[in-house]
Amino acid sequence: MPDSGLLGLDPWRWLLAGLAALLIGFSKTGLPGAGILAVPVMAWVFGARLSVGATLPLLLVGDVFAVLAYRAYADWPGLRRLLPWVGVGLLVGTLSLWALGHVTLKADPLGPVIGGIILALLALTLLQRAGRLRWQPGSGLSTGLIGVLGGFTTMISNAAGPVMGIFMTSLGYSKQQLMGTNAWTFFLFNVSKIPLLALLTWDNAAHPLVTAGSLEVNVLLAPLVVLGAWAGRAFLPRVPEGTFTTLLLILAGVAAVKLLIPN
After folding, report:
1. Structure-model confidence comparison of residues 243 and 142, the more confident one
2. CA 142 to CA 161: how far, in whole Å?
3. In terms of C-beta density within 10 A (0-12 exposed, 13-18 middle, 19 or more buried), how is residue 12 classed?
4. What's the CA gap between 214 and 200, in Å, rounded?
5. Which of 103, 142, 191, 211 is deepest in the core (most CB within 10 A)?
6. CA 137, chain centre distance (Å)
7. How many Å apart are CA 95 and CA 84, to the nearest integer?
8. Do 181 and 64 meet the contact criterion of CB atoms below 8 Å apart?
9. How far apart are CA 116 and CA 118, in angstroms?
10. Cα–Cα–Cα angle for 23, 173, 24, nearest 5°?
11. Selection from 236, 112, 90 nearest residue 175 by Cα
12. What average pLDDT does this structure show over 29-39?
């Protein structure tokens, strides 16, 4: 999608982008799983490649609210063990984005990649909910594997939420400790991605990850992230979480399948 046309998005694209912004806010303060639907929705709106960079500022707005709300509850020793491995995953994801940016195809090659990642993460989520996936977090190998996978998925698709959710749930955190550790984890993830996305955009201006137009859209959508964060903090604890999450997973699956189908 040309940069000059971003502010002239069709009304239905603005509606979808607004929904994604609300879900990002929800996911940061009340229901972490809500963010999984925002990823394919943003890919519909912006195109797969540009959506990676267009989503990041919105995530950072939500991260700030999450850190402010739950900053006192993070498991810092656990984070320190995880973060070096996340760095490896970020590097692998950066190299993958660089390679995909130089592939010449009629359709955006990142679309099917994001769709496939979302479907794989949904499968992991469903296995966990069915009690058929029990992660053993005690070993250094498991921490390294989760860190690399989390870094890779967050870099290439902004979709590390299910990976980190499965890992952190297995650690037996209280709800507040889970939210606090999650908040700081993704804040650090997303801040680390800023220079990497800027470098990739500078290297391949013909296929950018961030543009002036996408940043202008971010400014307009940021208040909806704030609204979603407030609603997540205030109202989502009263919503039947199981029903809401199931609906989001179904919609995310449909959106991911659409990304697998070339335009």
Report:
1. 142
2. 17
3. exposed
4. 16
5. 211
6. 22
7. 17
8. no
9. 5
10. 10
11. 236
12. 78
d(CA 163, CA 175) in angstroms, rounded, equals: 17
Q: Give CA angle at 124 (118, 125), nearest 5°.
A: 85
Report residue 207 as tokens.
């296929």
Query: What is the spatial distance between Cα 246 and Cα 168, in angstroms, rounded to a whole number?
Result: 20
Q: What is the pLDDT of residue 236?
A: 59
- Cα 263 to chain center, whole Å? 23
Residue 162 CA to residue 32 CA, distance in Å, equals: 8
Predicted local confidence at residue 239, as pLDDT: 65
Long-range pairs of 198-204 with CB within 8 A, sequence gap ≥ 24: 199/94, 200/94, 200/97, 200/98, 200/101, 201/53, 203/98, 203/101, 204/98, 204/101, 204/102
* Rounded Cα gap, residues 229 and 231, in angstroms: 5
Which tokens in the block code for residue 12?
């239905």
pTM, to two decimals:
0.84
Query: What's the length of the chain?
Result: 263
Amino acid at 90: L
Say if residues 39 and 245 touch (Cβ distance below 8 Å).
no
Maximum mean pLDDT: which of 51-60, 139-148, 234-243? 51-60
3-state helix, strand, coil in the chain (%, to 5): 80, 0, 20
DSSP character for 104? -
Are 23 and 35 in contact by the 8 Å Cβ rule? The answer is yes
Q: Are 251 and 35 in contact (CB under 8 A)?
A: no
